Automatic annotation (TrEMBL):
Highest taxon, organism lineage: Bacteria
Keyword Oxidoreductase: yes
Protein name: proline dehydrogenase
The protein's annotated pathway: Amino-acid degradation; L-proline degradation into L-glutamate; L-glutamate from L-proline: step 1/2
UniProt cofactor(s): FAD
Keywords: FAD, Flavoprotein, Nucleotide-binding, Oxidoreductase, Proline metabolism
Gene3D superfamilies: 3.20.20.220
Pfam hit, one: Pro_dh
SUPFAM superfamilies membership: FAD-linked oxidoreductase
Reaction catalysis annotation: L-proline + a quinone = (S)-1-pyrroline-5-carboxylate + a quinol + H(+)
Entry's EC annotation: 1.5.5.2
Species in which this protein is naturally found: Sphaerisporangium flaviroseum
Amino acid sequence: MLGSILLAVSRSPLARRAVSGFPVTRHVVDRFVAGEDAGDALSAVQRLTDARLSVTLDHLGEETKDTRAAAETVKAYATVLDALRPLGLGGRAEVSVKLSAVGQALDHSLALDHAREICAAAREAGTTVTLDMEDHTTVDSTLSILRTLREDFPSTGVAIQAYLFRSEADLRDLSYEGSRVRLVKGAYAEPASVAHQSKIEVDKAYVRCLRILMEGKGYPMVATHDDRLISITELLADRNGRERDGFEYQMLYGIRTDKQEALARAGSSVRVYVPYGDDWYGYFMRRLAERPANVAFFLRSLRSK
Ligand code: FDA
């Protein structure tokens, strides 16, 4: 219930102004966001890769209807990718892109051109791009952009959301050699006509999707902090003869860092999704919606100031 309210609030411009206006909010946001600029992002990359973790950098921002802002986002990715190049980390430091931040809501082909520019910059830096998945109205457009991008940039990956009814079919289509798919539960408020609503149904759907991914020929990126799903991944990897480098775990910056490090120490590939930038509102509210305890933490911080 609280989660649905927070997800609704995450799209309200009025609430955005109110929440962003609290002076202490930044302090709380810092738990989930690596900093405001490319320099902060690179410090996080250094810290995490030193701890044997891989990263995917997300320049925060979404749902823009402003062509200038979309072009600025492309520039921000080019800047961070350029700065990554001399570090020589290759695919250990890739980027994640929300197509709505590069113009998807304005024009499908503008978003494609922008995504292509980011993929070209990633290739120059010796790495690649994964497309985040946003609300269900964008899935067809995102998968179509993915198909086109992969003609020139075959390592481009995509996130698929287990809560959507359509996702098992999408995963079968994506289970070919060379495909890179990040499986997530799904973080948006979706109607019952397109998505499972209860946690138990979403978890069951995740397992069905995971089975398709692990049995397929692509590279599974298992993005969850859920211990039960991590155990099931281990079983499915064994059953399908996948070595440690045949799949990876992905978790969010600031969430279950002990688990991230423990998995990496045990020999698993683990990638941390590192958001940075000042447009943190939508991302932050989705993190609050996932866990009521985060809301309590936020409210406590407000009270203690
Ligand atoms: P679940 O929410 O059941 O959490 C399991 C446990 O993890 C909790 O009990 C708690 O211990 C911990 N946990 C989870 N969320 C937490 C939080 N916010 N704060 C503190 N602890 C928390 N979604 C999407 O729609 N499109 C996308 O492109 C992506 N991309 C993406 C990349 C990566 C690397 C990850 C890990 C996740 C995403 N997501 C996403 C978000 C995803 O859909 C989902 O909302 C979150 O991962 C939470 O789901 P869990 O699988 O972790 O399970």
